[in-house]
Specification:
By secondary structure, this protein is mainly beta. The protein is built from one helix and eleven strands. It is globular, with a radius of gyration of 14 Å. It starts with 12 loop residues before the first strand and ends with a strand.
């Protein structure tokens, strides 16, 4: 139901810091109709060209300032991911994605206080890295 919210088109690109490509990232919208604290993100998963990214290599920011690992997010109750505000999912991978076309799949799963099951959205996109 929320698959169309996941993986905003044309947002996947490599990330450079200090002249070095440290990974790649993409934007996503929340898989819910309201904002939630980061601790309510059940999980994020990324795969590129059929290869699952280890969870310890994934980072997330809702405010575009503070970055958290998936493990750290479990305790973050003070920062909310608001509906309509894209979050950024970053994959730490030296060199990022190689130039060319890649199939990237993003899964975002959230939970809420009053729905007894997690809400998951999955979207695969073909992305081109130049």
């Amino acid at each position: 139901m929320f698959d169309n919210n996941v993986f905003i088109p044309d947002t996947c690109h490599n990330v450079e810091e200090d002249g070095k490509v440290i990974g790649y990232e993409m934007q996503t919208n929340i898989t819910y109709y309201r904002g939630i604290p980061l601790s309510m993100i059940n999980y994020l998963k990324v795969s590129a060209d059929g290869e699952e990214v280890p969870s310890e290599d994934i980072r997330f920011t809702a405010d575009h300032i503070d970055w958290f690992s998936l493990e750290e997010m479990k305790t973050v109750g003070t920062i909310k991911w608001e509906y309509g505000a894209p979050g950024i999912v970053r994959v730490l991978k030296e060199g990022g994605l190689s130039k060319g076309t890649h199939d990237v799949k993003l899964t975002v799963c959230t939970r809420t206080a009053y729905i007894p099951f997690p809400i998951e959205g999955v979207m695969s996109r073909e992305v081109t890295i130049e």
